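Lab meeting prep.
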Amino acid sequence: MPQLARQTGTSLSEINIVPFVDVMLVLLIIFMITAPILQSGIEVNLPKTQTVKEVNEERLVVTIDRGQLIYLGNEPVNIHDLGNKVHGQMRNPQSDAVFLRCDETVPFGTFATVVDALRQSGIENVSVVTEPLSARPKGP
C-alpha cells in the first residue's frame, strides 16, 4: 500500500509573546520599586557629616549644583522666583520643611542667599541635606 506523504511541518505564523511579556513585567516591577528611591536628577556632592537623619517623608527639595544653578525638584528656577514657587507648592509654609541640597564646592554666600530667599518668603523650616562620612568612597 502506498503511503501518502503528510505535511506535518507548521509555519511560524504566530510569535510567542509570553517570554516578552514576562520580561516586561519584571522590568516594570523593578522600575516601580526603584523610582521612589531615587532622590533627584541633579548630581551634587553633598557635604559629609557625622549626624545624618533618615527621612521617609516626601518634601520639597531645593538643589544648588556645582555651577551655582538653583533647582526646585528637577526644574531650574531663578533665585528671585524661588521663594514664591516654593511657597506656592507648600500646604503649610510655617511648619512644613524644605530640604536644601547643596554641592560642597558652592561658596557659603550662595548658600546663604538661597536660605535668605526662602526665609523672606515665610518659610522657617529649612533642612540641610548631608551624607554620612562612611557613605562616600575614599579616593585620592
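Slide two material, second protein:
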Amino acid sequence: MSATGEELVRVDDLTKSFGSTRAVHGASFGIAAGEIHALCGHNGAGKSTVVKMLSGQETPDAGAIRIGGDRLDLHSRQVAQRSGVALVDQELSVVASLTVAENLMLGDLRAGWLNRRRAAGPRLRALLDNVGLGHVDLDQPLSELGIGERQLVEIARALGQDARLLILDEPTATLSDVESEYVYAAVRAVAATGRAILFVSHRLGEVLGLCDRVTVMRDGAVVATTAVAGLTIDSLIVQMLGEAPHRLRKRTGREAEGPAEVLNVSGLSVAGRVDDFSIGLRPGRVYALAGQLGSGASEVLRAIAGLVPAATGDIEVDGVTVRPGHPIAATRAGIAFVSNDRKSEGLFLDKPISWNLLATRLPAVTRWGVIDRQRWSTALTRLVGLCGLDGKRSADSVRSLSGGNQQKVFVGRGLGRSDVRVLLLDDPTRGVDVGGRAAIHVLLRDAADRGMTVLFSSTELEELLDLADVVITMHKGVVVRRHDGDVAGPVLLREMTHGAATPAEERR
C-alpha cells in the first residue's frame, strides 16, 4: 500500500444481475492513493463485471462507487473518463487503419474537435518511450505493428489520460516478458504520482511481483483482500478456487515411447521469421514451443497449418506430404489449428455455442447437404460433455461466455475427431484465468491420452512446466534446445530470452 494509506477509490456492496443470473453481489473493497491493487478470480467470478461497473460500461443494481470521497454515477464510458477513470480493456480497441499518434489521441476528451497532432507530439513521444516503444514512429500506421506492440500503444494511451483511477484488464496477456517489464515500470511510475491502479491479471506471478494488495472474487462475491507479502501462488489459487492446485501427470521415459511419428517437419523456413526448423512428433504426447514474442514459435505453427504462403520446407503427416502454404491440404491431412486470437480468427461471436462447436464438422452432421437433427444433437451432446460446458447454454451466443469458456469452445472444435491427427494451438490460454487454464490443460492432456498429437506455443514458464511432455525452446527464429521430461524453469527462461548459452556460460 502507499505510504499515505489514504483511500482514493471505494466500492461498497456492488450488486449486478443479468436476468436471473447474479453476476456480482455485495462486492466491497478500497484502493489507496499510490496503490497497485490486484483483482483476481476464476472464470465467472465477477471481476469483469466489477471492471465494467467502474468504467461506466454497466450500471450497478445496488451499491456505491466513490472516488476521492465523492459518490459517482458512472453510467457511461464518457462519464467515467470525465470522472477520472481510464481503462485498458483486455480486448484491443486500437484502430489498425489509423497512425500510432491518432490512436494515442483517440477517445481523449481533452483533445477537442481539432487534431492537435503537432502540439501533442512531444507528449505522445514520451508516452511511447515509457512503454518501450521508442523504436516506433508516431506517424507509422498501426497495422504495421504486431499484436504485442498494439497492446503497448493501448496502454500508453490510457497512461496519457491523467486519470485518478487506472484500470488495467489483462494488460500483459499478449506481451513477452521483456515487453511486460515496460508495462510494470510504467504502472509503478503512475502509482508513484498518487493515482490508484486496479490490475486484473491471470498471471499470478506478476500479481505477486507488482501489486501491493489482492482482492479475490469467487462466485460473484469478494472472499478476501490480502497484502501480497502474505501470499504465495498456491495460497492465492486456494483463495480463488477453494482448493489446492492440481498437477497433471506427464508422460516421460519409457512411458513416452510409442508409435511411429505422426508429424515430421524438416527444414521449415519463413523469411525473416523462422530458419531451418525441424521436428518429429509422436501421438499421445503434448509438445510445446517455448519462446518470447518474435521467437518464431507462432510462425512455425501457422506454417505447419498452411497459413503462411511464403513458408518453405517439408511437412509430412503419417508419411503423406503436405505442401506448405495450403491450409485446405493441411486440414485434409489431419491438422487442426487454434489461433491465439479467438475473436478475430476463431469464433463467430454472435452465433450460438452449438454452431461454433460444430462449424468444422458439418460433413458428420449433415445428410445430402442438409443438417440431420439427430446427428447434430448427438455430436453436440458428446462435444459439450467433452469440453465441460453447460449443455443448457448451447443455444446462447458465444459472446455471452467468459473468456475461459470461449476458449474452451475454440479448443473444443478440434477434440473428439477421428480426422484430426495433429492439434496445433498458439498460446491456448491467452487471457484465461487460472481456473479456465486448468480446464483447458485437462482437455489437451485428455486429447493426447486418446492418441492425438498436441503441439502448442507459450511464453509462460508455469504453463510450459505444468503441461508439456517435451519443450522445444526457440529464440530469434531458431531452435535452441529440446527438453524431454523435467527441466528447470530458469533454464527455459534463459534459453527463451537469450538463446543458446556460450561455452563459457555452460561451464559456469
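Talking points for slide two:
The chain has two domains: 7-94+164-241, 260-507.
The longest helix spans residues 177-192.
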